[in-house]
Amino acid sequence: MRYSAPVGQNMAAETPRRTAGGRAAARFRHPSSRLRQVAAHLGVLAIVAGGTSAFAVMHKTVTIDVDGHVVSKSAFGRTVGDVLAGSGVPVASRDRVQPPVDTEATDGEEIVVRHAHRLTLEIDGKSETVWTTALTVGEALDALGSRTAGAQVSASRSDPLGRDGALLRVSTAKTIHVVDGATTTDTATNASTVRDALLAMGVVLGASDRVSVPLETTLVDGIVIVVSRVTTTSGTQTVVAPYATQQQNDPKLPKGTTVVAQVGHSGTAIVTFEADLIGGQEVARRVISRVLVSDPVDQIVREGSAALPVSAPAAAGTSQAIGQELAAARGWTGDEWACLDNLWARESGWRVNAGNLSSGAFGIPQALPGSKMASIGADWQTNPATQITWGLNYIAGRYATPCGAWAFWSAHNWY
After folding, report:
1. Cα separation values, 359 from 160, 368, 413, Å
2. How many other CB atoms are there within 10 angstroms of residue 386's CB atom?
3. CB–CB of 260/299 below 8 Å?
4. What is the DSSP letter of 163?
């Protein structure tokens, strides 16, 4: 008969059997060793179970709305920022994320990401750069608030903003003053330019009408726009046809002197024109045709290129010496004296009694008639000083200088 130990009492070990090596093999292990083995297995199971639980908690399936494009993503992470990073969605400091990136993410959550981009905003002609997460023009305007309330915009509110650096023109409400003839109109408008404002007011411009500011001028509050109505008329007018001047070189004239060889005369022409009038006053004229009635006559001016004459020294006590002294008293020395010496040498050879039988000219300066020299002295027929004084006065009054008289004589052989 076999022995059974009572419940709760340790069972006795069976008689050990011999092994091949003569050692006894126990049929049962010691109870404490078995407990340690069980505890070890339980620990491993706890670790595995804990890791599986943490793995399940970190894994999220979320819906991400990135700038209006909705996608479903599976990712690992504790926070919204972790999940976005794990889903390959970059986020910068200016971007808007809802819920915020440091919020703990939950499975099945919807995450909205709006990336910030630069927007060039031109308000009433003044440009500025802003950052916005708006997707449409309307969202951007709403974010700007009262600055753009009631404004006119260069794009529809439903239009997407487009790429980074997009340009949005905004024209805010403003009061302008339009003067059209005798009528002044004060009006509120959100038009961006003078052209747009006039069109909105129904102001129609004629082809020749004028506006005080360019039509593409950006409107500002309080601007005054004056519209001038232009009427057109036509007519004819007789006008002067001016003459031209020809310059001719004359090697016989002293260098630096000019002589008018032919006096110019203007002609006449009939001009047909078209004129613009504002308030009855002519402001512009356009020539339609020009018909010459009488031809102008050119003026011919000769310019001397000959070297100035030279003069030999005057012998003492001669008429020539008296003339040199009296000319020097007037400041006529050097070239001026040489011109005078040559002039009277050719006219009279400096002789007091020189006479021209054909003309009646007399004396050193060849006065015509000689009796004119009596205004200087009664001895005009015999006194060289009297004749020279009169001659110098004549030159000064008619030619200014002896070289002026010499230039005229060179062109005409008389003075």
Report:
1. 105, 8, 14
2. 21
3. yes
4. S
The tokens describing 25, both together, are 């093999």
Nearest to 77 by CA among 97, 67, 91, 62: 62
Q: Is the peptide bond before 369 cis (omega within 30 degrees of 0)?
A: yes
Whether the pTM exceeds 0.70: the reply is no
C-alpha–C-alpha distance, residues 293 and 267, integer Å? 7
Q: Decide: 248 and 300 in contact? Cβ < 8 Å.
A: yes
Q: What domains can be seen in the chain, in order of their start residue?
A: 58-114 (3.10.20.90), 117-171 (3.10.20.90), 174-229 (3.10.20), 234-304 (2.20.230.10), 308-412 (no CATH)
Using DSSP's 3-state secondary structure scheme, residue 400 falls into coil
Q: Which residue did the predictor score with more confidence, 31 or 311? A: 311
Q: Are the C-beta atoms of 200 and 174 separated by less than 8 Å?
A: no
Omega within 30 of 0 (cis) for the link into 99:
yes
Which stretches within 268-333 are classed as H helix?
Answer: 319-329
- How many helices, marked H, and strands, marked E, lie in the chain? 8, 20
Cα 74 from Cα 267, distance rounded (Å): 99
| Rounded-to-integer distance, Cα 179 and Cα 223, Å | 11
What is the per-residue pLDDT across 135-182, written as a single tens digit (0 to 9) for each?
A: 998 888 888 886 777 788 888 888 988 777 788 888 888 999 999 988
Per-residue b or e along 232-257, where b marks 16 or more CB atoms closer than 10 Å to that residue's CB: eeeeeeebebebeeeeeebeebbeeb
Q: Are strands 258-262 and 299-306 parallel, antiparallel or unpaired?
A: antiparallel
Amino acid at 189: T
Count CB atoms within 10 A of the CB of residue 153: 18
Helix (H, G, I), strand (E, B) or coil at 397: helix
